[in-house]
Amino acid sequence: MDLSIMMLPLAKGSKKNPLPFLKSVCSLTWLIRKNEIDLVHANHEFTNRHAALASRFARVPQICHVRNAKTQSSVRDHWLRMSPFLIANSRATARSYESFLRHSQRSYVVYNGVDLDRFSGDQHSRHRFGIPEDAYVIAQVGRITPEKGIHILLESLTQIVANHPEVHALVAGDTTVHGDESYLASLRQQVAGLHLGDRIRFVGYVGDVQAVYGIANLLVQPSICVEGFGRSLIEAMAMRLPVVASGAGGAVEVVDDGVTGLLIPPNDASALARAILTLMENRALADRMGQAGRERVERLFTNRMHAQRIQAIYHEILGR
């Protein structure tokens, strides 16, 4: 099968000057018609406003793929209501939009997938990140933003390190999406105030993120908001790591509580500390959870399964 890739910049425009936005919509409409495209799939609601209009002008069906649970009203909501089809990355994400969508809109749930070959459980060197070889490493992977609850992880460590000096935390991610540099600065101040400076590594964005999982003993995701899915969870589980996550949103569908990891109440540093200690002090349990996590990913969260589900939705829509 031949696959063509075309890059088309999409301008946002503004209320005062919508012309760049309208030009982008016209260009996308022209591209759809010229190439006789049968279906438009907007990956994320950020690009949906261009896709929703262009697909209507070109008279072809259109999908919006939403990856974040709806938490508050947004200008993007108007454009989302224009999409006849919706794909959500979890049942939690889909439910968050139920009362908002029109009756004629159809929604599907397709879980994210992971590359099993890339996330295979290979070990990596800890020297790259300045971590001692004999350390117990707790990893957190994702954007540096308050919703991710990194400050909760730091607070939980104060309840652990006194009796477990081997504990180190590795935080991988950056602030480029939302520009939360002030949050990162507050985290560094928190580390200094808690005297954890030699225990925490903020390593920024890591392209080969499997290297982070490869030196970790445990992944935590102590989000204080409702996560739509939690990609880092399936990546870590594929690497045979036990996980600890806030029991809200998509994480409840990803983590089999007590089998592949532990779910805790959001915004609860003490509960996080207890969960970490449970896995630290029972390595056999942690190993069983890691293996069960890999098996769960193989059953439910592979790239192949994701692609097959998307393809089936395409066939169903075009068959209409």
Task: Describe the protein in words.
- The protein is α/β, with parallel strands linked by helices.
- It folds into two domains: 19-113 and 302-319, Rossmann fold (3-Layer(aba) Sandwich); 127-300, Rossmann fold, CATH 3.40.50.
- Helices cover 39% and strands 14% of the residues.
- It is built from twelve helices and ten strands.
- It has helices at 19-34, 48-58, 76-80, 91-97, 150-157, 181-193, 210-215, 231-238, 251-254, 269-280, 283-300, 303-319, and strands spanning 40-43, 62-66, 85-88, 106-109, 136-141, 167-172, 200-204, 218-221, 243-246, 261-264.
- The strands form two sheets. A six-stranded parallel sheet has the order 7-6-5-8-9-10, sandwiched between helices. A four-stranded parallel sheet has the order 1-2-3-4.
- Helix 4 (91-97) links the parallel strand 3 (85-88) and strand 4 (106-109).
- Helix 8 (231-238) crosses helix 11 (283-300).
Calculate the mean pLDDT score and round it. Answer: 92
- For this structure, the quaternary state is single chain
Q: Any idea of the CATH topology of the largest domain?
A: Rossmann fold
Structural class of the helix and strand makeup?
alpha/beta
Low-confidence stretches: none
- Beta percentage is 5-15%
How are the strands ordered across the major sheet? 7-6-5-8-9-10
Count of extended strands: 10
Instruction: Kindly provide the name of the CATH class of the largest domain.
Output: Alpha Beta
The CATH architecture assignment of the largest domain turns out to be: 3-Layer(aba) Sandwich
Q: What is the approximate shape?
A: elongated
Count of individual helical segments: 12
What portion of residues is helical? 25-40%
Q: How many structural domains can be distinguished in the coordinates? A: 2
Measured distance between first and last alpha carbons: 23 Å
What's the CATH H-level homologous superfamily of the largest domain? Glycogen Phosphorylase B
What integer value in Å does the Rg equal? 22 Å
Q: What summary fits the major beta sheet?
A: 6 strands, parallel
The string of secondary-structure elements, in order, is: HEHEHEHEEHEHEHEHEHEHHH
